[in-house]
Design goal:
By secondary structure, the protein is mainly alpha-helical. The N terminus and C terminus are likely disordered.
């Protein structure tokens, strides 16, 4: 409470001020001053008035608590009102000056004076209204020097708070005073007195404003001394500070860090920031605001402080400037399931793993990350798996993992699932995602194939365990791992429904969108050039499939099928009636998987291996049989319909319901479709339906636009069948002369469609139409757009083209293409019209390609590319139109044109046509490079580019730089192709279909002239020399990346008939095989594997590889496919075993405690990490604290406890209990003492080395002293292995390997009564 003496002293001052004149708002001291000086004076006066106001408010609070002081209330209230009035006047004057343009101010000085002397002791409400650092002010003051002055002023004020008074009151520093004095000075006015809460709040405001300054001008932080700022920040981190203050302090430190040196200075400073971080991380979720900021600070440590020891080393070989005590705290947070920051800390540890694996291994974080692969969180488990697989790639980082032990924990989610029931399914599916990530990477696949493919075999053996849920998950895993895309009828087949009806439209879509691994399904709809493409994903799938088969996958699937066959029919019926339907569905899924595997084997595996697999098990393709039967049924139906008699024909017409009902919902749609596709194909029956029964007229009147029937039907999926009905009807009418005559002379359908087009054309429309048939709304919401599909059906036939010309349909198309904002009409025309015959359709397409609307040009280009893709042979008119799009002003249209041209040029006929046209591609830049590479593969194109000096220029670029870019491109493409997450926003990766991207050297080697240029340059000889010299490099990652680039260059050269002699002359194929089988870097082995597949692309290359027991995959006609696998798969996927070194290092040795009580306390704290005796240890600590409470106020003992907690494994609640056990408040004074103790309590390094070099009993004694230095009783080390294994200490066999150090433990358990 504020003393009375200052109150009385203040009373006279207030009365004196009340008599002063305050009528004039103009301040005489502002006369003759510039704006900068006026702002300074006003802010000084505003600061004084704010302090007077605060002092008056506090005096009123004192008066309320002391009834005897009521006589002072009128004077204080009058002074408070006067202060508020002055604050309002000064604020208004400040607002007037702020409205003056910035150019008229002296910016270099004003901002520092305006913002540097801020009142920081007002309450929160006043602060929000009078704060100088408002957003509007900062918007005008983000000049560097101004911001620096602001920051300097704020820091000075912050540093002035670092002295703490022993009482409850503090003195407000005036502009001339920067230190606190106690309230006992009678000369001090009460408005200058503040308590701890106000100081804490004011400090928080200052740090927040300082962060704003640093955010608005990042250059300021580079001019500040971070240690000087830390002087004012550290008190805000103390235990007596609020959690908001600590959060603001952590945030300010994070914004002050600029580089690696800043973190080093903080680490070596006496402020002991790590202790504050450990304390914060041990707090509960009530302190989430400060824990959030400390986690962000740690992530800043990782991002800015994480550095690699050398630019030539790989992942995990860097250094993160985080202490072990902070790392142990992070590990404790991740192990505590209720901590809300567990997930983000887990991701942070994964990032540290990729930078400094040694730190992760030393602090026990490796164990937590491995366990998260199974326990979750399931959302980030695949990401953690990817991090570990990246570590597995190189031998140095691979040694930190126990072979066949650590990563196998990911399998435990499946292998340990038997008997856990359906509740365990979610965990199993999470584990299956992790395993899928492993199977789709080289490091993961080879790791699972260690020890005779034990990991893969254990996965397959789970299919033999009678667990329905486990088998379902495993089967789904194999579907995804082999890239098997299930067909549309998959769910219907699994559920047991009959597959009796597959529409022709669905069959068409399935044949054109079939997955690349679907064998005959894909080849049926793929051009020959596409079928012969080299596909990297196919080659990897071939190896993966062979590994599965070698591990017994086929036997396991056949075993599931045999289980179903051994069950009698009666038992099956009972199962279906009860709960056995799931087992039947499982058998169907296994049957489908077996059939798909056999089909994939025929596609991607060599004929000999595929034949052996087919001999092991045979299955028929369900989809093929269904399609074949459906085609036969349709053919029979058509034949029967053509030969129907008169009576039956009339009966069918009546059965359709068209003659009896006008509402289309009452029609028998299936009978009507069969009638149009069957009997009406007969000209006689069609004439009878039109003239005699009037059936044709009634049916086609349904489609008249002005009838308001078809054109008003809502656009839904079920209603789209009526569009198909109209197209079928027009096809039937156009197939015979009577139907053509009917459309031309009798029926007004086509004329009404043209009239509807005229509704949109001003020159033909007599007046505005309220709701045109082809309005935007009706095109979107109704079946009006179906008329374009009907007209497209007419355009497929010469008779239809004549009808459209007769009704001037194309003239209307030309007019529609000029309408503004009606891109939907243009797209509808070019999408449905047929371009087989020349004339108007092609002119309309060319007009759309040059439309003024970008969307129309983009869509027309895409449609043209699809036409070229689906054309059976090259069409010159299509290619000329597509080449025109290369000069489109929009870059995205050019990219589309290049993409489709590059795809079309896979065909040599198309490529020769394009080269003969000699398009200019220089303006395209990087976009046109793939197309130019295609041109190089033809003699005409190569000569054309060689004369333009393109070859020499690009060759130097590829030799020195582009080879590296090619490696990155291919590896990113492959990572995307095998990624289980296909929701990436990077659209450029979506175009990758597994085909090897074109390589400059590979395209050059396709021509004789190119081979001559390559031989003259001598580049291949340099490639071969580099492979021989550095083929087995495993340490220098710069060399490894260059080795990959050289391998891809050599592989692309060897993929051509002209380039293979280069490899044979240098004898480099044997070296590539050696790399593929013996390189210690697993990704390099994968690169060599793909390169060998490229070499097998030619018959000569396949023969050479066959001599080394690598067999190429051939088509049934004996052509190479670019796929090649080793006959001895086990040797290829073999990974040499390694020895995992000791990971967690022992802590620094400390001087033993002096008193027996301290030894007991440290021993009990050590026992808390052992769950067996933890409860008794806690009771012992409570008992000791009852009798020796002063011991828990000892800072040295507190340091020993924190050191023990920070070097051993403790759960988060135990860490919190230990820290709260001591009556030591962490503040700057305690931190300074801890800094001194960190140097005095530890045994000097020279003594540690001397003890390590001692002999016999001396070494043993020194070892005991080292353990005693931690405060751990030596007798505690004599435990059984199970208890000792729970402690976070080095393993026993690792301790025994240390030279000349022998520890002889004795058995003793403390804390129990005798």
């Amino acid at each position: 409470m504020v003393s009375a003496a200052p109150v009385n002293a203040t009373q006279g001052g207030m009365q004196g001020r009340s008599n002063a004149s305050n009528t004039s708002k103009d301040l005489p001291e502002l006369d003759g001053k510039d704006i900068t000086e006026q702002l300074e004076i006003l802010h000084n006066r505003l600061e004084v008035e704010n302090r007077i106001k605060d002092g008056a408010e506090k005096i009123l609070q004192v008066i309320e608590k002391n009834e005897g002081k009521e006589s002072l209330r009128p004077a204080v209230e009058a002074q408070l009102a006067q202060a508020k009035a002055k604050i309002a006047d000064l604020s208004a004057k400040l607002d007037q000056l702020r409205d003056i343009p910035i150019a008229s101010r002296s910016r270099k000085k004003a901002a520092a004076l305006v913002n540097g002397k801020r009142s920081v002791f007002t309450n929160q409400a006043t602060q929000s209204s009078t704060s100088v650092l408002t957003r509007e002010e900062l918007a005008d003051k983000d000049d560097f020097r101004t911001a620096l002055n602001q920051a300097t002023s704020l820091i000075q004020t912050l540093v002035s708070y670092q002295q703490r008074s022993s009482g409850n009151s503090f003195m407000i520093p005036s502009p001339q005073q920067s230190t606190f004095t106690t309230s006992s000075d009678p000369s001090v006015s009460p408005q200058s007195v503040m308590n701890d809460l106000d100081v804490d709040r004011s400090r928080t405001f200052i740090m927040t404003d300082l962060v704003i300054v640093l955010q608005r001008n990042a250059r300021v932080k580079y001019e500040l001394d971070i240690l000087e700022v830390m002087k004012g920040i550290v008190p805000a981190l103390a235990d007596y500070a609020s959690k908001e203050s600590r959060a603001a302090a952590y945030r300010l430190i994070r914004h002050l860090i600029i580089d690696h040196e800043s973190l080093q200075r903080i680490a070596s400073s006496p402020y002991m920031l790590d202790f504050y971080i450990v304390r914060t991380l041990a707090r509960d979720n009530k302190h989430a605001v400060e824990k959030e900021q400390v986690v962000k600070l740690i992530r800043t440590y990782v991002e800015i402080g994480g550095s690699r020891r050398s630019p030539t080393v790989g992942a995990g070989n860097g250094k993160v400037l985080l202490s072990e005590m902070v790392m142990r705290s992070l590990v404790a947070v991740t192990e505590h399931g209720e901590d809300q920051f567990r997930f983000v800390v887990l991701e942070t540890l994964a990032e540290i793993l990729l930078i400094d694996i040694d730190l992760v291994a030393r602090t026990g974080a490796m164990r937590v990350l491995l366990q998260a692969l199974v326990d979750g969180p399931h959302e980030i488990a695949p990401t953690l798996a990817t991090a570990f697989l990246y570590i597995l790639d190189a031998p140095r980082t691979r040694s930190y993992l126990n072979p066949s032990v650590d990563i196998e924990i990911a399998l435990s989610g499946l292998t340990d699932s038997y008997g856990k029931g359906p509740s365990h399914v979610e965990k199993m599916r999470s584990s299956s995602k992790v395993i899928l990530v492993m199977l789709r990477t080289w490091s993961g696949l080879m790791y699972l194939c260690m020890n005779n493919m034990r990991g893969v075999s254990s996965l397959i053996n789970m299919l033999r365990i009678p667990s329905l849920e486990t088998r379902e998950v495993i089967l789904d895993l194999f579907f995804e791992a082999l890239n098997i895309e299930t067909p549309d009828w998959f769910k219907a087949y699994i559920s047991g429904r009959r597959l009796t009806m597959i529409s022709s439209q669905k069959r068409h879509s399935q044949s054109t969108i079939a997955p690349p691994l679907q064998g005959s399904n894909s080849s049926s709809s793929t051009s020959p050039s596409t079928a012969e493409r080299l596909n990297l994903t196919h080659q990897y799938i071939a190896l993966l499939l062979l590994v599965f088969i070698e591990s017994g996958l086929l036997d396991a699937l056949v075993g599931i099928l045999e289980e179903g066959q051994n069950t009698d029919d009666k038992k099956k019926d009972k199962e279906k009636e009860s709960a056995g339907i799931g087992h039947v569905n499982l058998i169907r899924k296994a049957t489908l998987l077996l059939g798909e595997i056999l089909e994939i084997a025929n596609t991607v595996l060599p004929l000999g291996i595929a034949a052996r697999i087919q001999h092991m098990s045979r299955a028929n393709s369900v989809e093929d049989s269904v399609r074949r039967g459906q085609r036969q049924v349709e053919q029979v139906k058509v034949k029967l319909g053509m030969q129907i008699d008169d009576k039956a024909f009339q009966a069918i017409i009546i059965e359709t319901g068209v003659m009896m009902h006008k509402e289309h919902q009452k029609w028998n749609f299936e009978v009507l479709t069969d009638l149009i596709e069957g009997p009406l194909m007969n000209p006689k029956r069609l004439e009878e339906a039109i003239k005699v029964s009037k059936f044709g007229k009634k049916l086609i009147s349904f489609f008249h636009p002005f009838a308001g029937r078809f054109s008003t039907i809502p656009n839904t999926t079920s209603n789209q069948r009526y569009i198909k009905l109209g197209c079928t009807l027009l096809t039937t009418l156009i197939s015979c002369p009577e139907g053509v005559r009917f459309l031309a002379t009798e029926d007004p359908l086509l004329k009404q469609i043209v009239d509807c087009f005229h509704q949109l054309e001003m020159q033909f429309s007599p007046g505005p139409v309220s709701d045109p048939v082809f309005s935007k709304a009706r095109m979107k919401d109704s079946l009006s757009w179906g008329y374009f599909e009907m007209l497209g059906t007419l355009s497929k036939y010469p008779e239809g083209i004549e009808l459209m010309e007769r009704f001037k349909m194309f003239t209307s198309f030309y007019h529609l293409s000029e309408l503004k904002s009606r891109e939907d009409l243009i797209i509808g025309i070019i999408e449905n019209i047929d371009y087989t015959s020349g004339g108007h359709p092609r002119i309309i397409l060319s007009k759309a390609l040059t439309s003024a609307y970008l969307e129309v040009r983009r869509y027309a280009t895409t449609h043209l590319g699809q036409l070229i893709r689906s054309a059976p042979k090259a069409n010159e008119w299509m290619l000329r139109l597509l080449l025109t799009q290369l000069y489109d002003p929009a870059e995205e249209v050019c990219e589309l044109a290049v993409q489709y041209l590059e795809e079309a040029c896979e065909s040599m006929d198309v490529l020769e046509l394009v080269v003969q046209m000699q398009p200019t591609l220089d303006h395209l830049g990087e976009i046109g490079h793939p197309l130019l590479l295609k041109f190089m593969s033809t003699p005409v194109g190569f000569r054309y580019l060689y004369k333009a000096d393109y070859i020499n220029r690009e060759m130097e670029g590829w030799f020195h730089e582009r080879n590296y870019q090619y490696v990155v491109q291919v590896e990113v493409y492959l990572a995307k192709a095998f990624s289980s997450d296909q929701s990436d926003e990077d659209d450029d990766l979506l175009v990758f279909d597994g085909t090897v991207p074109p390589h400059f050297y590979g395209e050059m080697a396709k021509t004789e002239l190119g081979c001559s240029v390559l031989s003259e340059k001598g580049h291949f000889a340099e490639f071969a020399h580099f492979i021989r010299q550095h083929g087995l490099e495993s340490e220098d990652f710069d060399i490894i990346i260059k080795l990959k680039s050289v391998l891809w260059a050599v592989g692309n050269i060897g993929a051509t008939s002209g380039g293979l002699p280069f490899l044979e002359e240098e004898g480099i194929i044997a070296d590539i095989l050696n790399i593929a089988e013996n390189s210690l870097v697993l990704s390099v082995r994968g690169t060599a594997f793909f390169v060998l597949g490229l070499i097998s692309s030619t018959p000569q290359g396949a023969e050479v590889l066959d001599e080394f027991d690598w067999e190429a995959t051939l088509t049934p006609l004996g052509q190479t496919t670019g796929l090649c696998i080793p006959l001895d798969v086990a040797t290829f996927v073999r990974v040499p075993p390694w020895v995992c070194p000791m990971q967690e290092t022992p802590p620094k040795r400390m001087i033993p405690p002096e008193t027996e009580v301290e030894k007991q306390i440290i021993t009990a704290i050590s026992n808390l990490q052992n769950t067996v005796i933890a409860n008794e240890a806690a009771r012992s600590l409570t008992r000791i604290k009852t009798h020796h409470r002063r011991a828990f106020s000892s800072v040295p003992l507190f340091y020993r406890a924190v050191h023990l907690v920070s070097t051993q494994r403790y759960r988060l609640p135990v860490r919190r209990y230990i820290l709260d056990l001591f009556d030591v408040d962490l503040d700057p004074d305690v931190a300074s003492t801890l800094f001194t103790l960190s140097k005095s309590l530890h045994v000097p390094p020279r003594l540690q080395k001397r003890s390590a070099s001692g002999s016999g009993a001396d070494a043993a004694e020194n070892g005991r002293a080292a353990i005693a230095g931690l405060g751990i009783d030596m007798d505690m080390l004599e435990m059984d292995d199970s208890v000792r294994g729970s402690l976070d200490e080095p393993a026993a066999h690792e301790i025994s390997q240390r030279p000349k150090t022998v520890l002889v433990p004795a058995m003793k358990i403390t804390g129990f009564d005798a």
